[in-house]
Amino acid sequence: MIYTVVDIETTGGSHGNRITEIAAVKTDGKQVLGSYETLINPEVFIPKSITLLTGITNTMVEDAPRFEDIADEFLAFLGETVFIAHNVSFDYGIIKNHFEDLAMSFNMKKLCTVRLSRGIIPGYPSYSLGKICPQLGIENHNRHRAMGDTMATVELFHLLLTKDKDDFVFYSLNQLNKEAMLPPNLEKSEFESVPNTTGVYYLLGEKMEILYVGKAKDIKKRIVTHFSEKSRKKSELLRKIHHVSYVETGNELIALLLESDEIKKHYPPYNKAQKNKSNDYHVCYYEAQDEVLRVDVFLKKFAKNSIQSFSSVTMAKDHLYQLVEKNKLCPKYTGLERTKGNCYLGEECAICSGTETPADYNKRVMKSTENKAKEQSVWIIGPGRTKEEYGVVSIRQGDYVGFGFIETVSISSQEELQDAIQPYRNNNDIKRILNGFMSNPIPRMYTLLEQRLAAV
Questions:
Q1: Distance (Å, whole) CA 266 – CA 274
Q2: 334 in Cβ contact with 297 (< 8 Å)
Q3: What pTM value is reported for the model?
């Protein structure tokens, strides 16, 4: 079997992670068969911090070929070999992105020498190239340059093959093997401990810092999807993952609520949604000169009679569409159609067709804008983490109180339900989650139980 060991230098993530240098060395596992090396013009500015690390300056790459100029010859050099790199998800992912930018496919079998090292020679405190090589007596004559790091990785790979008594390399080449998909710094045993249950999961860094929070019906299956995504941002995330953690919630509603709370509490760098955004867009109702009520989206500073607020105009408009469709409101009076005549619904629109008076229409508008959750004090009871318990969410007079778990035999006791609840913060995303849940038909796995306020 022929392998190609590859290393790249780049401009760094803040500049789109464009390649500045590529080195590749072919080997049969015992001796070097050939090499390829070139600087690359990244077509973007190389930051000074990167130059200090690699020694590659903007002047050095000014007359160098662009990636598109060497793509065909580099792909031909790789051929049908196995792609190897130290932290392969980084190098392979960025090279794949460069090929895809040129509408060229790039798919190769690959091996990671970080993961191979962990499996074949366990017990070292660090498996970074700069630390593992000196401990094994491997010299790197040009650290942080592509060929220097490539030759050190070739020597490391040759050493690993001599010590591979359990066919770990062959095992890792099996593309159906889950371990081959794992981030290089994540221990297999830690991933295998993750359950196939509903809950919230955490992707953690080397110092247990939270990088990403997510929720899933099947935690393990959802985490695996992160490992198979190869976007630039995902490749960066994969390199930083050292640990995974999780909290089982029993049902998806509690998972949604906990995920929202955790994102706002920890502000993970790789979560985009649900971070603390200002709700600058409001769906409001108002009465015009013709005494017909309108419903439309307004900026916060102009908002009066607000029905609900949103962090984006798209979310606000989506809520407005739902109001119109669910309550058969007139598109002309909801800002969805600009016309002086009848709306596009024609005879199907009661007020435009004259079958409904403005007063009756206004009553329907007011009824449709009522938030039912504002008036409700209920327990939402759903599946728990085991067959012997229920998950319980508490809403008191429309406000989210928190959630907890309770044994099946205690389901009829309001006092025990209240004692089971752990308090959590309310916020606009929580309101959106609960409003969506309460506005739709309740799934059969959930039950609503009215709270006796005097008892709590």
A1: 11
A2: no
A3: 0.58
